[in-house]
Amino acid sequence: MTPQMERINPWQMVLAQIDKAEKHLHCDPNIIEKLKHAERALLVAVPVRMDDGKVKVFKGFRVQHSTVRGPSKGGIRFHPDVDLDEVTALAAWMTWKCAVMNIPFGGAKGGVQCEPKGLSLGELERLTRRYTSEILHFIGPDRDIPAPDVNTNEQIMAWMMDTYSMQVGHSVPGVVTGKPIAIGGSEGRSEATGRGVVYMIIEAAKKLEINLSGCTAAVQGFGNVGVSTAKNLYLEGVKIVAVSNVQGGVYSAKGIDPLALEDHIKTTGSIVGFPGCDAIGNEELLALDCDILVPAALENVIHKGNAHQIKARILAEGANGPVTPIADEILREKNVFMIPDILANAGGVTVSYFEWVQDLQNYFWNEAEINNRLRQLMVVAFKKVMAIADEHQVDNRTAAQILGIGRVVEAVRLRGLYP
Ligand code: NAD
User: Fold this and answer.
1) What angle do CA 15, 16, 21 make, to 5 degrees?
2) Tens digit of pLDDT for each residue in 97-143?
3) What is the pLDDT of residues 282-315, one digit of tens each?
4) Among this protein's residues, is 207 annotated catalytic?
5) Which of 164, 288, 347, 391 has its CA 20 to 30 A from that of 183?
6) Atom in ligand 1 nearest the alpha carbon of residue 321
7) How many Cβ atoms from other residues are within 10 Å of residue 222's Cβ?
8) What are the structural domains of the chain?
9) What is residue 323's DSSP assignment?
10) Most informative mutation of 225, 247, 250, 265 for ligand 1 (most atoms within 8 A of CB)
11) Ligand 1 centroid vs 29 CA: distance in angstroms?
């Protein structure tokens, strides 16, 4: 950590954001108070028999922030830094995100404190299955529907779906989204988050009257979100000048072909050494002179220590919470066009919603239909956020929160307080 870096507790960020939105919502303060607490939080022990015969116990979490607008929805993260405050914050952001998109879900998030890269495939499967069985009574297609997040993928969703189905005695594809297509997954889901990020960048470019073709972009994180963002930007004619992941980064002024980079990583196991590129550090990547910057890895990467160095015109938050509140102010002063996480990366949960709908009706749509519906919903949300930003004279993040939190406030008001 650099001396200037802020270590922000993400839950404190959520509380500050709610306070900011409240000033524009003029609603019953009791409702706001309710939203400052997650409905339920489960902490579980996840004992796993390791390959050497020893038993290791991992900490697992599942937090349901809100089920007011529908079953709660949110990913499962496997990472050493997972803790209750992080999971709770991510769950609240899911609540606002689903409301911004106007899809009938609340917000949840889950995680296991572990370093999955140190686990064998067998250990990973046993950890996933045991974690699923520990949260089993908490989740379900009408209650709470997990999905992939950092270090979890289609295979892990398949194991979760199978574990749940074995316990209840019949197949329940709708209990998770982000599954393989062969067992009820949706066309277009694996690329949906990055595709949605690019739909939002296209709208931002239109608003700013920038021609995307010929623009340059840097993408931090080359996992699910980063890969599909880079590929879809490339298809729009944007020159990807730098990409990084946890191992390091690569830079080329001539541009990087994300498909070739993906192949290089598959064959060599590393991003480093991609032909025709120079090495670049993660900090250096953020400060590059480029038109578009997409942080698509983890929280708090743009902070008061490095926000001054950002040169991009458009910043699209592929990751959740990559910009700290102080950095947010700095970027605003620098006139960076911010596409906030609860709008920019909402494509994932939106196609997850489509996947759930398809599972419930046992009738599946083709990819073109999925992508069209996704684009329609995201463009509507973008325009709504821009209109609120104009009306209230606020920044894009506050506008998105006014929209998302406002819709949840209205649902709480209509349902009333039980009993
Ligand atoms: P992933 O595990 O597929 O990829 C994460 C990427 O970040 C990897 O390339 C990893 O190497 C890189 N990374 C990790 N630590 C890093 C560091 N310190 N510096 C640089 N790179 C680093 O995860 P993902 O699903 O792509 O999620 C990334 C972000 O997007 C998270 O914030 C997640 O919550 C958010 N998100 C994901 C989805 C989804 O559908 N998967 C949807 C919405 C938001």
Assistant:
1) 100
2) 999 999 999 999 999 999 999 999 999 999 999 999 999 999 999 99
3) 999 999 999 999 999 999 999 999 999 999 999 9
4) no
5) 347
6) 32
7) 24
8) 39-173 (3.40.50.10860), 192-344 (3.40.50.720)
9) B
10) 225
11) 35
